[in-house]
């Protein structure tokens, strides 16, 4: 299923996970985030993977300002010694 075709169903979920490989570039990833903002229920959580620094060569970086319509609750950037590449962001959908 193409996420951009999902509309009403998104309103039924309390948490939506957005994988780090969604979108081939920043514009496409932001387009998906905007779609989620339009169709998710107020108060629902968006958990997404991002990248910081040189890791952005592998995965698309998502900046908190890309999450219009969401309140960023937490951002975690692991060190490479922890064995993880992707950062994690948790955001809450604001009221419509």
UniProtKB/TrEMBL annotation:
GO molecular function, one term: nicotianamine synthase activity
UniProt keyword list: S-adenosyl-L-methionine, Transferase
InterPro entries listed in its UniProt record: Nicotian_synth, SAM-dependent_MTases_sf
UniProt cross-references to PROSITE patterns, sorted A to Z: NAS
Pfam families: NAS
Source organism, top-level taxon: Eukaryota
Similarity remark: Belongs to the nicotianamine synthase (NAS)-like family.
Protein name per the record: Nicotianamine synthase
């Amino acid at each position: 299923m193409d996420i951009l075709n999902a509309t009403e169903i998104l309103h039924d979920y309390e948490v939506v996970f957005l994988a780090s490989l969604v979108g081939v570039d920043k514009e496409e990833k932001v387009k998906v985030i905007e779609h989620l903002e339009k169709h998710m229920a107020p108060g629902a959580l968006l958990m997404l993977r991002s990248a910081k620094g040189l890791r952005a060569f592998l995965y698309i970086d998502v900046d908190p300002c890309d999450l219009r319509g969401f309140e960023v609750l937490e951002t975690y950037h692991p060190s490479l010694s922890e064995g993880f590449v992707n950062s994690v962001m948790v955001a809450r959908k604001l009221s419509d």
